[in-house]
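Running this now, will post back.
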Amino acid sequence: MKYLLDTNSVANELLKKRGDFFIIRDVLSESPRLREKEIELRSFGVTIVEVTIKQLRKLKEVVLFDHCGNLKLIRLYTNMGMADVLMLAYILSETEQEGLFPPEPWTLVTKDAPLSDAAKKYDIECVSADLLVKTL
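Update: finished.
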């Protein structure tokens, strides 16, 4: 299992030298608090991933066909960016079967209700950081 972290889910009690936590650089960049903690996040074993053309293609598909009117999820004009929908696109692109073996499953770690609601439409598992701390 791989865990993709939202800005609201990065907590020290969750980050215990693990290799299965990931955060997208664009998500990291949205939060001044997290930008300052990048070195610390890396020391905890959080992998900071870059968006590739593969994720951008999936982002286009998700925005144009599935969520073009979802203003709770896509807040471009409120200076809050597209990180939420980018996280969906990232997981969807990473879980597409490309070979003989099924891809490793991903869980989205967030307490953002509109993001969790959108993730459910794609059968993406979501969990809050608080609940994840209790289960790990």
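The longest helix spans residues 53-66. More later if anyone needs it.
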